[in-house]
């Protein structure tokens, strides 16, 4: 309790503002249900100063959660760093104006194509947004996998699977093709989504299509933690209805071939399908819904189990193979995350057990996926270990970053192991030590002279990272001897690192880059020339430049390594 108080106190007191600021820094807003009691008491206190006893009384009931927030023990502990990286990728993608709005209905054709938003929400309820994240837009096909979840929930897996398949279609989303047994391929193509709407509609014969849609909207509201109202766009619905010729054709085909579930009325079925496309939400709401899926169906903001975990697993699997229209295969290869896009320009993406996010930008590529949204996903996965198969890398993801707390702890443990092994004469620890030393010395002498502050950094880095003590004076002797050997030491270093790279795991490669980085910015700046050298080292170690840029950005913000 004392430690927690000290984290927010100054001169023996703290304030509502200081406490909320500390929470915001960790990504937690005052609307988080786990600290609802604390926030209620804080509101009642207003601007009054809070002493130690008052503080204890304030957070006493929610001590565990507050402690996790204050001590940065949430799933993404360095939340501010992570948000900076997200912002960086958001900015990189923003200038892309390729693609075009969907134009089959006026409301989508006339939407502002410049809009661009990204929202993220971790499974611990940490939230961050950039850009146009509070604009309501129709969710369109993003509705499809969740209507499927709803069908599984209400009508059961056996009944649902009698009418809709779970195979990738390899056909356009609006094709009239069916599986050999006459079922639609999956719930994400129109035929499957229309059939799924039929399954749901058939289970509530007493309800109108609109009432059934309201039930589905209630599920969306639970998924998005009630942070804003789930709306319905009458305008979208009218347009959808008047342009639904192909969807009518599909509906009649379904009725003619397989037959409809419980002989549900075809018009009611189609009405439910089109209504689901006309549900309106914001990017921010979709990110919370994605986080709920990432969290196995439990909304991180409310703690409510909105969907059973078993159903979420099935929904994510369907999204993985069919969520991105005809590009789902390539998307799985490149991004490796379950996602669903819609023609209004939204993409909902799930990083299981970590976070959900959503992007919104109306210009679409030839597959119907948001251009900026897909670009964002690719760049994110180039930098972070979010691809579903990054986990099998055996420590060789190309030094992608992993923002999880567990990873943080693992790195610390690996470092202490390294120190311990070096102290006991382990051969591979010795090799890491020598490579670190060589890298730092070669960086130090790359500009043709040996400066004291660089030597200090080398000495400190070796000491803190690996527990090996070498005096700066001795480092000077080593560096000058190396300098005297002449002949482009930096090129020699790159060749050495390139040779060793296949034998080094991510941790060691990360350490080498970090050490080089520390020496390069010994004078407190990263000059273009120094950046070029770092990029050379990153290249030799097989590290994506975007990962280096995240480190550079951290350094410029004064973060400690
Ligand atoms: N509402 C569109 C249709 O049924 C599909 C929307 C989408 O693919 O996002 O044709």
Radius of gyration: 27 Å
Shape, principal axes of CA atoms: globular
Main β-sheet description: 5 strands, antiparallel
Share of helix among residues?
40-55%
| Small ligands present | glutamic acid
Can you walk me through this structure?
With 561 residues, the protein is mainly alpha-helical. The protein folds into three domains: 69 residues, Recoverin, domain 1 (Orthogonal Bundle), CATH 1.10.238; 279 residues, Beta-lactamase (3-Layer(aba) Sandwich); 150 residues, TerB-like (Orthogonal Bundle). Helix content is 55%, strand content 6%. The protein is built from 26 helices and eight strands. A five-stranded antiparallel beta sheet has the order 2-1-8-7-6. Strands 3-5-4 form a three-stranded antiparallel beta sheet. A hairpin with a 3-residue loop joins strand 7 and strand 8. The longest helix has 19 residues. It is globular. The site of glutamic acid has 10 residues, from loops.
Provide a short characterization of the protein structure.
With 561 residues, this protein is mostly helical. The chain has helices spanning 2-8, 16-25, 36-45, 52-59, 63-70, 79-93, 106-109, 143-155, 157-163, 190-202, 209-223, 234-242, 245-257, 266-277, 283-294, 309-322, 328-334, 371-383, 405-423, 427-445, 452-466, 472-484, 489-500, 506-520, 528-540, 545-556, and strands at residues 117-122, 127-131, 137-138, 231-232, 279-281, 339-341, 346-351, 355-360.
